[in-house]
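Tokens for chain A. Residues wanted.
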């Protein structure tokens, strides 16, 4: 299984916000530059996560985004189910497959997908944004602030 770019970006944004080191919200432009993500794509991801209540998005001159939930209360599996669309691993109807009525593969793949999400539910945003990863993110924040000031 491979995650969509949408989910990949969403997880990076959440991890970045989980280690925010300042009072002001983080701008979409900052996140875009930090991760090399196109601004327009990032706006879509941020909008979807704001609708879920995971982040606060504020418009205007002093706007930006900040985490709206405790990192320890946000299971990664739940995030992925929503960002990925909780769809099946295979699209039997879309292909008009002749095997669909007697196929074991669809169920086996769904079982594997469910196992993946269950495994990801054992980790929270705090887990994946902690330790060395968290230290690297804090360093990214500080470097950005230095570059912005200088």
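Reply:
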């Amino acid at each position: 299984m491979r995650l969509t770019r949408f989910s990949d970006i969403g997880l990076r944004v959440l991890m970045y916000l989980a280690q925010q080191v300042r009072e002001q919200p983080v701008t979409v432009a900052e996140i875009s530059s930090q991760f090399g993500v196109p601004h327009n794509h990032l706006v879509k991801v941020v909008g979807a996560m704001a609708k879920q209540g995971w982040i606060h998005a504020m418009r205007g001159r002093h706007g930006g985004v900040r985490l709206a939930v405790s990192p320890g209360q946000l299971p990664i599996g739940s995030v992925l189910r929503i960002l990925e669309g909780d769809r099946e691993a295979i699209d039997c109807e879309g292909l008009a497959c002749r095997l669909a009525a007697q196929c074991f593969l669809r169920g086996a793949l769904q079982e594997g997908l469910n196992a993946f999400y269950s495994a990801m539910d054992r980790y929270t945003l705090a887990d994946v944004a902690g330790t060395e990863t968290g230290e690297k993110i804090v360093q990214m924040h500080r470097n950005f602030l230095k570059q912005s000031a200088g």
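The first strand starts at residue 55 and ends at 58. The CA atoms of residues 7 and 105 lie 25 Å apart.
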